[in-house]
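Q&A log
Question type: sequence-to-structure
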Amino acid sequence: MRFLFNILLCSAALQLYAQTDTVVQNGNAPALSSSVTIYTGKATQFAADNLGNVYVLTPAGLLIKFNNKGDSLNAFNEVRRYGTVYAMDVTNPMKVLLYYKDFSTIVMLDRYLNRVNIIDLRKLGIFQAKAVGLSYDNNVWIFDEQSAKLKKVDESGRLLSETADLRQVLNVAPSPVKIIDRDGFVYVYDAANGLYVFDYYGTLKNTIALTGISDLQVIGKTIAGRRQQAFVRYTTGTLELREAPLPVMIQQAEKIYITQQGVYILNATGIELYPYQ
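Response status: OK
Response body:
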């Protein structure tokens, strides 16, 4: 299973490279086919994993998992039991993370959306965290804004590691909105101040002046996202930032996800997949 998952990750990376290279070299958006409807109705949030599954949070308080053909696979109907979901991480299709910011609580689900674990961050003294994310080893990264530290905890809520106070290192108080663990590095994104890159030991390796980016994704050495109606691509290790117009059909999307299957978008009527041509 791990071998297959790694193959799929590599495939996703190659697909993203191909599409982003087309964008930045030709100045045009990647060619997309006609859309496939995944979900019809209002959605408060959605995310797509590396296998093309889509996770939809509905206003009624359901988390529904769909495949890339729009077939409903599983549902979790206890979403509101813990409050309002602030963020979710589906990086690992076998382990779904739901974060309830108001109660500093993380709920872990398996691939069938069965609850398997609950982490109460308040027991660690963490009451102010806007960004959490799964780690490569199935633990959890958390940015504690009160102490200005990037922390790592295990499934039982035990603190495994933490950085120094980053206010002293950066001379600014970071307020990240997203954490991505990818290929040996941890990317902590602060929309106002930029992207901070750490190694797994908590050492700050780089600061990248990318601000105002939404739908940020990292695959390999490519950082991608959008700024207003433009696609943004940055390759780490270079000083090269490229932008190109988004395809017309996704310019007004509330949220997008780029995957190996194509581009998923959330709009006012639901969620659609635009496969690559």
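Response note: Residues 1-28 have pLDDT under 50 and may be disordered.
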